[in-house]
Write a structure and sequence with these properties.
Layout (H helix, E strand, L loop, with lengths): L8 E4 L2 E5 L5 E5 L18 E6 L4 E9 L5 E10 L7 E10 L4 E6 L2 H6 L16
Antiparallel strand pairs: 1-2, 2-3, 4-5, 4-8, 5-6, 6-7
Subunit structure: LSm subunits form a heteromer with a doughnut shape.
Subcellular location: Nucleus
Keywords: mRNA processing, mRNA splicing, Nucleus, Ribonucleoprotein, RNA-binding, Spliceosome
């Protein structure tokens, strides 16, 4: 949050508003989740997901389970390694466990769209680690 923002004020159950010295109003929508069962991961079980880790890795696999600390179990997983000089390399990992405190983003993967991509022709800079 920028330094000139004021303390957020609740608008309704899942909305916060704040303002800055420049007169900007910023509204945040807070995610709704049940912390005892995880942040909506139950709807992704047995589906292919993509996980971005804090160290910048992209791991794709089938979500088989998770716990209250968002530790996740992936099956049929592989890591996608991006490069600006050659296509995306896919390193087979198989059954894989990722600690919840090492996860930055979990997202559902559109398998139809993903299978239509030619990863050997895709060039991209690798992600940098998350800094706190």
């Amino acid at each position: 949050m920028p330094k000139d923002l004021q303390q957020p004020l609740p608008l309704q159950e899942n909305l916060l508003a704040t303002s800055s010295s420049r007169g900007l109003a910023i509204i945040y929508q807070l995610p709704t989740c049940n912390m005892s069962t995880g942040p909506g991961l139950e709807s992704l079980v047995d589906q292919t997901i993509s996980v971005i880790t804090n160290d910048g890795r992209n791991i794709v696999g089938v979500l088989k389970g998770f716990d209250q600390a968002t530790n996740i179990i992936l099956d049929e997983s592989h890591e996608r390694v991006y490069s600006t000089k050659e296509g995306v390399q896919q390193l087979v990992l198989g059954l894989y466990i990722i600690r919840g405190d090492n996860i930055s983003i979990v997202g559902e993967l559109d398998e139809e769209l993903d299978s239509s991509l030619d990863l050997s022709k895709l060039r991209a800079h690798p992600l940098k680690p998350v800094t706190h």
